[in-house]
Amino acid sequence: MGSETPLHLPVIDFSNKNLKPGDPQWDLTKADVQKALQDYGCFEASFDKVPIELRKSIFKALEELFELPLQTKLRNISKKPFHGYVGQYPVVPLYESMGIDDSDVLEKVEAFTEKLWPQGNNNFRTTIHTFSKKLSELDITIRRMIMESFGLVKYIDEHLQSTNYLLRVMKYEGPDTEETKLGLNAHTDKNIVTILYQNHVEGLEVQTKDKKWIKVKPSQDSFIVMIGDSLHALLNGRLHSPYHRVMMTGTETRYSLGLFSIPKAGHVVGSPDELVDEEHPRLFKPFDHVEFLQFYYTEAGQRSQSALKTYCGM
Ligand SMILES: O=C(O)CCC(=O)C(=O)O
Ligand SMILES: [Fe+2]
Question: The pTM is what?
């Protein structure tokens, strides 16, 4: 005891590479992605497309956003659960977050910005949009690789068109004690793929299949890529969707962002027949993601160990 090497996530390099489907480098990276996602459901991606100036602008934009009066922040509403403002009350006092639907579409970011700053805020709009675009490129590369890995090339375009992006921006206050406090409850993501980015304050922990918590320590140009329950279902359980949580210590404020690829309402998430055979019986009934999310936020959904299994397990 005491001499165990700390657990860490696999690191996969997406920097300085002009990755193109069919190139040898693409295939090597694809194999690493598949292995990491089978083993951990998560990896750290080194990705150099967010230059230091953009990193600075992103975290400045987040500070500015969360400093707005509560009344203003409450204008961030959405029909979909957990897509709008979530306040510091009552469950997790350190946490506050907001959601920007379709953050890769300039007009949508513009509309979000105008709601909060009726006089306009070009800096905020451009920063959020540019950042989302860059991250969506990484998301698309990774999802292409995943679909290829499982022999689903013919479904790639249809799959990529079946989702929208949500950018969630998060603020976690330091608890100001030596103790570690819960910043965000342990959960699995419900979407397809999540890409997380954070300021210099750590706190994210990802659970391994044998229930050990890995403390994630990303660098300035690394992004945490994670599988959500919808992709787990789409691939008939081939990839793991890991539990994760945020634990906070100290006095510093943690800011993080997550780009979530999410199945569109009305799109049925179901595993193609190619992934179903005697060895891999169908695990989940096809479902609508928005309806699944609504179930997740009911009492029964919150109580179940796996909302996905309870909702549509076979
Ligand atoms: O803040 C983080 O790093 C994690 C956030 C998260 O897990 C989520 O929003 O689903
Ligand atoms: Fe999450």
Answer: 0.96
pLDDT for residue 5 is more than 80 = no
Measured over the CA atoms of residue 188, residue 106, residue 74 and residue 60, the dihedral's sign is positive
Cα–ligand 2 centroid distance for 187 (angstroms): 6
Work out which ligand 1 atom sits closest to the CA atom of 168. 9
Query: Any idea what DSSP says for residue 210?
Result: T
Q: Tally the domains of the chain.
A: 1
Cβ-Cβ contacts under 8 Å for 58 (sequence gap 6 or more): 50, 127, 128, 131, 197, 257
Angle (nearest 5°) at CA 268 between 34 and 294: 100
Give the residue numbers spanning the domain of 208.
4-12+23-264
User: Would residue 299 count as lying in a domain?
Assistant: no
pLDDT at 1 over 60: no
Q: How far apart (Å, rounded) are the C-alpha atoms in residues 226 and 204?
A: 12
> How is residue 313 annotated by DSSP?
B
Pocket flag, ligand 1, residue 184 (CB < 6 Å):
yes
Whether 296 contacts 209, CB under 8 Å = no
